[in-house]
Amino acid sequence: xxxxxxxxxxxxxxxxxxxxxxxxxxxxxxxxxxxxxxxxxxxxxxxxxxxxxxxxxxxxxxxxxxxxxxxxxxxxxxxxxxxxxxxxxxxxxxxxxxxxxxxxxxxxxxxxxxxxxxxxxxxxxxxxxxxxxxxxxxxxxxxxxxxxxxxxxxxxxxxxxxxxxxxxxxxxxxxxxxxxxxxxxxxxxxxxxxxxxxxxxxxxxxxxxxxxxxxxxxxxxxxxxxxxxxxxxxxxxxxxxxxxxxxxxxxxxxxxxxxxxxxxxxxxxxxxxxxxxxxxxxxxxxxxxxxxxxxxxxxxxxxxxxxxxxxxxxxxxxxxxxxxxxxxxxxxxxxxxxxxxxxxxxxxxxxxxxxxxxxxxxxxxxxxxxxxxxxxxxxxxxxxxxxxxxxxxxxxxxxxxxxxxxxxxxxxxxxxxxxxxxxxxxxxxxxxxxxxxxxxxxxxxxxxxxxxxxxxxxxxxxxxxxxxxxxxxxxxxxxxxxxxxxxxxxxxxxxxxxxxxxxxxxxxxxxxxxxxxxxxxxxxxxxxxxxxxxxxxxxxxxxxxxxxxxxxxxxxxxxxxxxxxxxx
Length: 568
What we know:
Number of strands: 17
Strand order of the largest sheet: 2-1-3-4-5
Helix content: 40-55%
Oligomer: single chain
CATH architecture of the domain at 272-424: 2-Layer Sandwich
Strand content: 15-25%
């Protein structure tokens, strides 16, 4: 027969599985007698809960700090801290104030002690010896109640969690749909922008072909007329046509190259102190033929006081000339164009106002963009769509602004540029011009020995013919090696050298020439289609005395033979 302890519970229960199988809260048993702890553990084994044992009130409190329990079996009579004191401390802690406590005692307690126990939160009293079935029944009630409470809390938490998850998923879905919608809109916008850019480029290429053919057509006709009757001298009209249309082609190519240089950050300004009124007058002088051709009246208001700025004179002339030429193009014949210049607070300004076809509102916001040709000229033609884009970038390089206003079609338009006034910190030394050359030993009227080196036969022979027409002796070469040999052989006064030569290029030719003939006094002039600032510097560093950009005028070519060089 199995032995019993003072609780009356069998001390040996070999047929009871005391290993915990539940993941729920554990049961805490507190008794200072080890045998009682073993007996209580055995009695509670059918609950399949982990049992934690403590041999004193202090140890019980320590265990409660470590874990959560569903029930405490607490002995009343313990040394040191008795069960009542332990229960009072358990109830004083927020986390354990509702923890069920069953007091276990070997002595019948008086009414006051029982009342105190219940005041301390006891849920029951068990007297020793304890009947295991009674203990198990009572404990199971409180454990089940705790389980149900936890289940309800878990269900409530799960409901709240599910609701929160549904709300989160709905919000996430809404955001995802918004992001997808925004992404689709952005993609559509980018596609529209790409399509618009393609449309503009296609339109630009078509108009570029048109603008190139415009001057080429009269050039072709003039050449055909010369071929029909080559013995007849050129008429003044034919000469003017050739001159004017060549200038038009040159300006077109220069605009294209300038825009390319700006976009590649290869334009270098040469700022210097200047009176803005002088720049405006230079632009007027350049644009006056276009205005007079259309019998338009130009009103000028420049003011009496200087308008001091620091700017690249030629580039700002280019900008204002573009605005004046546009005013002439987009204004009907015999109408008025106005240009004014002055100071507004701390900025210099130039305004060009016309009484022409105006600018529609939808075009104002993009009038300064590249390839925009929506505005039709007063003569029915379009434009290349580069001039205003180039003007804006040149003005912005000067830390200025450019804008346009118009009340709509048929109301005319006003273009205004503003530039910073001169500041002492802005004044910079003006670089010497590379096209100023030192005089030759001979007089300018003397016949010179020259060499022309160019792989383009037509260009080479026409320059040679120009030089011969002025009485100069001319030798020609079609590649770098021939040119080098020609210069060494004839030791000319001047050599006009193309840069893009077969064999060895123009720069390499000059390097070899300077190395082989250090005492050579030949003036070396680059005559090339390369006109970037870097190209000019490259020829200067190589040893060229001057740099002319094709198509160079006859006057520029002839001047390059004898004009002074820097330092003389």
